Amino acid sequence: MIYTVTLNPSIDYVVEVEELQLGGLNRMTRDLKFPGGKGINVSRVLGQLGAENTALGFLGGFTGRFVDETLTKGGIRTDFVTIQDDTRINIKLKHGDETEVNGLGPMIREEEAEELVHKLSRVREGDIVVLSGSAPPSLGSDYYDRLTSVCSTTGADFVIDTTGEALLKALKHKPLLVKPNHHELAELFGVAMETQQQLVTYGRKLLDMGAQHVLVSMAGEGALLITADRVFHADVPAGAVRNSVGAGDSMIAGFVGTLALGQGLMEAFRTGVASGSATAFSDDLATRSRIEELCPQVNITEW
Ligand SMILES: Nc1ncnc2c1ncn2[C@@H]1O[C@H](COP(=O)(O)OP(=O)(O)O)[C@@H](O)[C@H]1O
Ligand SMILES: O=P(O)(O)OC[C@H]1O[C@](O)(COP(=O)(O)O)[C@@H](O)[C@@H]1O
Question: What does this protein do (predicted)?
Answer without folding.
Answer: Catalyzes the ATP-dependent phosphorylation of fructose-l-phosphate to fructose-l,6-bisphosphate.
